[in-house]
Automatic annotation (TrEMBL):
This is Phosphatase. Mg(2+) binds at D20, D22, D201. Keywords: Hydrolase, Magnesium, Metal-binding. Substrate binds at D31, D106. It comes from the Eukaryota. Its cofactor is Mg(2+). The active site is at D20, D22. GO terms for molecular function: metal ion binding; phosphatase activity. SUPFAM superfamilies: HAD-like. NCBIfam families: DKMTPPase-SF, HAD-SF-IB. It comes from Oryza meyeriana var. granulata. InterPro entries: HAD-like_sf, HAD_hydro_PyrdxlP_Pase-like, HAD_sf, Pase_PHOSPHO-typ.
Length: 315
């Protein structure tokens, strides 16, 4: 599913930054964070022994609803999830410099929206691709797979072992790259596809980074599964790999890449014969932490009207 609604900055610099959500934008796994906060850890672990993760978290939301837990309690847990001010500053600065920002996550639309809205960051993202979620007529949060893998649906068709059955981020990245290829600074699309920067940490982040080329950048979180996968076969990854360990690293590495890309674009324009000298890239000071903004105190039934809608992604 894709959620749009991010504000345009009108100064595109040819860079598309794609963020994972769990352990990248926030410093935890959002599913585990909610389950632990609501005292359901053991029950969730039991569900995981019998169900795929995406199905298990949906079933867990059903059990919590049945015992009287509300959607607002779930949202309150998410508002307390750890999000570094360095991440907020990186998002704000990258957007101000002209980057298009997107989220590509195996979390779900409700969890992602709750966090980004609370921290005032939702408007910086042009799209969110994640598992669909909505509040049904009974007030129960439903979480569905991005790629339906329940028969007779065929699933996403990717055979890479690191992709869960409900979502192949590589398939989504292929679509994003197709969209990127239609844009460029006045040049032919085939010659001047925009650059991608992909940030992630988990096994599911390995497939999308394999879709990137030498023109792009990968920012794996050092010491996490995707870093180990890259280290195990470095030649398989064509993109420029720039690791990060903590959120100060994330901010510094990301903004450094953006500066490189902007400078490279200016040099490319000069090589095209426009005769203008490349303007220096000036990085503004890191933005102060954004002020938190809480979600409405009551989330009504039918909340799906304000949640991102699903779009079909070819298998």
């Amino acid at each position: 599913m894709a959620a749009s609604g991010g504000v345009g900055n009108g100064n595109g610099n040819g860079v598309v930054v794609v963020f994972d959500f769990d352990k990248t934008i926030i410093d935890c796994d959002s599913d585990n964070w909610v389950v632990d906060a609501l005292g359901a850890t053991d029950r969730f672990d039991d569900l995981l022994r019998r169900l795929p993760w995406n199905s298990a978290i949906d079933a867990m939301m059903g059990e919590l609803h049945a015992e009287g837990r509300t959607v607002e309690e779930v949202a309150a847990c998410l508002r307390a999830a750890p999000l570094s001010p360095r991440v907020a500053a990186a998002v704000e600065t990258a957007h101000a410099l002209g980057c298009e920002l997107r989220v590509l996550s195996d979390a779900n639309a409700f969890f992602v929206a709750a966090v980004l809205e609370h921290h005032g960051l939702a408007g910086y993202f042009s799209a969110v691709d994640t598992n669909p979620a909505f509040v049904d007529g009974d007030g129960r949060l439903r979480i569905l797979p991005y790629h339906d893998f329940h028969a007779p649906a065929a699933g996403h068709g990717c055979h890479l072992a690191t992709c869960p059955p409900n979502m192949c981020k590589g398939k989504v990245m292929e679509r994003i790259i197709d969209e990127m290829s239609s844009c460029g600074r006045g040049a032919a699309p085939a010659a001047r596809r925009r650059r991608a920067v992909y940030l992630g940490d988990g096994r599911g982040d390995y497939c999308p980074l394999l879709k990137l080329t030498e023109r792009d950048y990968v920012m794996p979180r050092k010491g996490y599964p995707v870093w180990d996968l890259i280290a195990g076969d470095r030649a398989a990854v064509r993109a420029d790999v720039r690791e990060w360990a903590d959120f100060e690293d994330l901010e510094a590495v990301l903004l450094g890449i953006v500066a490189e890309c902007i400078t490279s674009e200016h040099h490319d324009d000069d090589d095209d014969g426009d005769g203008e000298a490349a303007a220096p890239v000036v990085m503004s000071p890191a933005a102060a932490p954004v002020e938190c903004r809480a979600l409405p105190s009551t989330l009504a039934s039918g909340q799906e009207a304000v949640l991102p809608k699903a779009v079909h992604v070819p298998n």
